[in-house]
């Protein structure tokens, strides 16, 4: 493969959206940030200069980084933040991925403005598993907050209050014609009639699953999360934060302008839908002569808010391509089986001024443990055998079983433990995890669960409490979709499988930043195999240091 070099300069820059001007930390002056374009098998060095006001890390979402968690990015998991005035060069290794992925900041909520797409073309001498499109374009969904979001979140975490979903959504940095003060600034995708385009869609919003549709046009879904799918044609897609989707669009309508629009499909808070800030639009514009200035057509096929049936219908169509060139490799004999309860919770208020549910602080957990970041990154502590920074006792199962999707709960499951508990795995273990959502405190929601360093097969999902006797009979072991982010249905479950063949320290978390900030994450450490080729690489010389005193 080829080696590419990118320079990313992080700097505060002014942006005006929805009648509000504010400063945002962005890369190279743009929102979304620059696109990285490579072929499968390439390596990219990204030199990140932090000219902002606070520490930042970057993550290459969906890139497996074989044996190289040193460049994976989540703060206090695999590195310490790059401090203002400092730089760090990430080495991003593209091994198995093909399609679209993305990069984003992985510190505080900075990913809101620090993100961009990664396009991975087939290796030289190989082709797409579908006819070569006439063009391609990246479509990134983002969130806009009128206020400074890191400040708001910090204050909310102090008081235990809920944090905002966003003030609107963006498509390629623009809210579109239907939002305040946004008319005329929409992103436009220019097409020629009769041609086919590959839209590379990234959901980079902070807290919401989205529907997306193009007026009068169907799309054909061909890939997801850097893996190919069996193509299927649909009038809309559903996409969760963290996920990426490759869709073909044939410009087969009359010359004109058509809205491409997103809509949020669920929130646990009513105020999010009191006015319609969930529609962001862009314009699909045919090249040619226009006789009328009529507004573009709005997609009638965009499912409405809370249309879970539309989501399910879409998700059931996701199947791996499962071709000789792109085979499926689901492990059949499982050595480690886990059941992870994904839940919202509360932490009792220490001082009677908390603003979460019941006057407590909002929290969230996996198997009733809220992750607490250690003062130095877990990767360094693991690599240097330093004790006291984490414990190896993340449980394979919840400590108490209950009716997860009922309305009444034992008190102890509403209040989680806090700690830095990791799950240890031997090299090449075959792992199955069932994630189970809950309705604790009446807060059931979807959860886009993302694993670093891996992709996995999603072999089943459903509503209600997982039934270990019956559900496995319905598992798809033939052509399950391969993802790096799986959406656990609201009040439901999903089961995934993977082989632990990438040694290192890897973060597992909900990709809603509200939930992540409250503790909905854990860490998997995959031990080395017995050869150098199956062991963790050496750390680079210039890893950012933490600001706490510790001994080497
Ligand atoms: Cu999109 Cu932890 O990542
Ligand atoms: Cu979540």
From TrEMBL:
Its cofactor is Cu cation. The keyword Transmembrane helix does not apply. It is found in: Secreted, Extracellular space, Apoplast. It is an enzyme of class 1 (oxidoreductase). PROSITE patterns: MULTICOPPER_OXIDASE1, MULTICOPPER_OXIDASE2. Binds 4 Cu cations per monomer. GO terms for biological process: lignin catabolic process. This is Laccase. It comes from Nyssa sinensis.
